Amino acid sequence: MKITIPSRLDEVTIQEYQNIVDIDVSSISDKEKWIRTIDLFIQKEVNYDLVSVADLQQVYQEIINLINKNYTKTHYRFEFNGVRYGLIPNLSEMTTQEFCDAMEMNEPKNIHLLLQVLYRPITNENKTHYDIEPYSADLTRAELFKGLPLNYYKGVALFFSTIVMDYWRTTKNYLSHQKTQFTK
Description:
Blueprint: H1 14-21, H2 30-39, H3 53-67, E1 77-80, E2 83-87, H4 96-104, H5 111-118, E3 119-125, E4 130-132, H6 139-144, H7 150-183
Antiparallel strand pairs: 1-2, 2-3, 3-4
Helix pairs in contact: 2-3, 4-5
């Protein structure tokens, strides 16, 4: 029996990723973990008693390796379900509400909510610039984003975490300098 699974991040949706990380592996056997994960990607009934343990483990590991893969391309603009979306054009101009919501939602179960903060419909666009709608929590768009390919999240997560780490590093350096100045 041949089981076809995704081989690229753009073949895994946000919802499928959330379903994988939502599996409580602490209370089930390895075999059950493998089966539940594989079942997320196959459309037909499989008699797993006829599949070797080695094959189950290999397919499971391929899925896990795929979803844990680093993805470095950030999608600044894209079209999804007939709507053009853009990443917040200038992250240094994020409002406090946008930043706090984004930081609060940066965990697997809330990825779709995070993406609706960072990506919004484009209101005006040319080759070098675009404007997006003002921020307001949009649960309809968040639910829609569960269907986005995982690579959209992976790219922006790396981009966003790099900015946050730079911010914290700069803040630490600044505060260390201020402390030095204060103690002189």
